[in-house]
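Project standup — Tuesday

K.O.: blocked on the structure for the chain from last sprint. Re-posting the sequence here as requested.
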Amino acid sequence: MYLQIAIPPQVSGSKENNIPVNPIAGYLIVLAPLIFLLTIIAYRKCKIAIFRLSVEKLERIWLLTTK
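H.V.: unblocked you, prediction finished:
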């Protein structure tokens, strides 16, 4: 009869990643979608402002021609 003894695997005391990661690449991965979304929002706001200005201009022209 054999007695089996469980031997725990060898675990190093270090919990560091062995993969080098460039912090700039990490920041770009996080910031790129954020910058993209902010650009879309700013573009839409700009288009709305331009549209409102053109509507005001056309209303002023219309008021001048109706008098």
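K.O.: great, moving the ticket to review. Residues 34-67 form one domain. The chain is about 65% helix and 0% strand.
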